[in-house]
Amino acid sequence: MKSIRARLFTILLVTTGIVWLSAIAWIYLSTKAQVERVLDARLTEAARMVGSLVSSQDIAIGKAGAAAAIVAVPHASYDRQLSCQIWGFDGTLVGRSESAPGKPLTLAKSGFSETSVDGETWRVYAVTNPELGIRVLVGDNLRVRDRLVADVIRGLAFPALLILPVLAALLWLSVGRGLAPLNAMASALGARRASDLSALPDNDSPSEIKPVIHSLNGLFARVSTVRERERDFTAFAAHELRTPIAGLKTQAQIALGSSDDSIRNNALRQITVAVDRTARLVRQLTDLTNAESGELEDDVGHVDVGRTLQTLADDIGQHHRNAASVLISAELARLELGVNPSLFMAGARNLLENAVLHSPPDKPVRCGLRQEQRFLAITIDDCGPGIPEDELPKVRGRFFRGRNQTAAGSGLGLVIAELAAERMGAVLHLENRAEGGLRAELQFAERAIADGAA
Length: 454
Description:
Blueprint lengths: L3 H52 L26 E7 L4 E4 L14 E7 L2 E10 L4 E8 H37 L1 H11 L19 H48 L3 H33 L7 E4 H15 L6 E3 L1 H4 L2 E4 L1 H18 L6 E7 L3 E7 L31 H12 L2 E6 L5 E8 L9
């Protein structure tokens, strides 16, 4: 059942029906018990009355039908309900009411009993008079008793059945009225333009709908942030790609139009530099997209830190032959982390590449390990100019290029490194070294260390 209105209507109708049927069952049982107590009391009173009249000789023993005068007729539908018999101790029927059968209603000497006479079940009360040698029997036909209770229940159930359609209609209208705020919210959302991501008002909304509105407003805010980020990303990426592409075209025109070999070779070298810069930018854009997608977040594996950093260093050295070298400490060679390999490589590559490009060729970049009580950190130290203190809060912004930028930089390396660290559950920490240069740390919790790693 996909309709909330139909589901609520069914639940309310079934619940109301169950309560109503339970009430009728309870009324039936209590009414039956009460009727039995009242009629048993009437049997006792009638039997004692007949016995008293016989003792006072107001009823002459031996007269046929003498006992009939004491039987009450409460209602036309239940006439002749009570039957009375007077039996002698010798088994002689002394007298009986008009509706009483000719056989004894019970063989019990005194008190209540139930017997079957001529196919009818009787509830009988017996009173014994030893002085006169007689027994007075007053009985109720149980079939008549059951009919009395059934008529009471029928009187309750019939109005209930008549009112049930009215109740169902009221429930349906009430549920529809209760869901009106949801319909109003759906109409408001349906009338919105696709570009309208403003928050929904919740001042007059019911408390049950406010969590939905708050969740939608949170979603709108996140979508708006993502759209703004994508808009900026597209604009910045187009700007960054336009510069090397324009340079490529210019240098290609110079190479084609010049007959001087030195000018042509220089133009070709500039083309190579521009191609490398463009390739790096495209790779960084791809890394950023993969890191932001979150698809790799659950793909956890074992990362041999020392070997991975050495592979990255060799690859960077092939692309930047005149750049600084990379030295990896022996401690990292014995370290394994239980993190996503692709995210680790994306973050480490950009940190290493930034360090190599900012360091002088004769001063190596050093990769080491620092362990604290609650975490361990992979450190990457360069010997470059560092980052001005006023720019440290800004360097994690997309396409931000500070005063100490390099020609090959695009302003995405630290963004990718930080995003990859967040996806791995790590923290990227940046600080200027006292001796000069920048230290970048990937800080991992101790639980990230793979089993069996040193």
